[in-house]
Amino acid sequence: MSDFFLLMWKPLLACLILTGIHTYLGIHVIERKVIFVDLALAQIAALGAVVAFMFGFSLHGQATYWFSLGATFIGAIIFSLTRMRREKIPQEAIIGIVYAVSAAAAILILSRAAEGDEEIRHMLVGNILLVDMREIVTMALLYGLVGFFHWKFRKNFLLISIKPEEAYHKGIRVKGWDILFYLTFGLVVTSSVRIAGVLLVFSFLIVPAVGAILFSDKIASRLFLGWIYGVIASITGIGMSYYFDLPTGATVICVFGGLLVLLTLLKAVIFKSAS
Asked: How far apart (Å, rounded) are the C-alpha atoms in residues 162 and 152?
């Protein structure tokens, strides 16, 4: 056990930090019914990194991060502007198109590189085992600032996500707040994908929030339950990857999914017992 914590405490700490901010943002994403916006923004961030690589920068360098962030901000503005009060085309369709095109473009560019296959794998599942203390501290500070910003203006953010019509009636500038939401969301996703990869970030964002929604209708309760879910899944997934010598990111993702199945069955049993 001591060897486990000695070797795995950094990736475990990174997972706990990811849980904190992504569970909160996941609740917004589900309420907005734009489930795959995280995948789309994460893929846009990855495409930005690939474009930087095409210009000769290291895929894991600081310059590449700024390319990713710039691409993500462009995607965030697009998604904020395509949310309409009365939709003719569902925003989820636009998000899906952006994701597919970004993924295809990244694959096309990386196909010209000798190590392209390995970079595509890294883009999807990352390598959280290699996270260092500088990255952990940077994540904690950045996500803390984003979290404080959202807490400070939580009434507007939550109202626009949960009851957009009421926000319009109150005269709130929904489009402007949407831009702020997606920009901060994109900032978090870009930083997370760099460490954890597209699929693991999506799991942290969506699965704990879905598990919490099964058992509560209140935002505060959902947030608390989602945090518990994320902590349990992170510890279990990293523990299994260590003791069974499995890829860490993929193992954590599968544990997230397995726990959701168990919670769904538990909910069904509780519902049946109550009826």
From this structure: 17
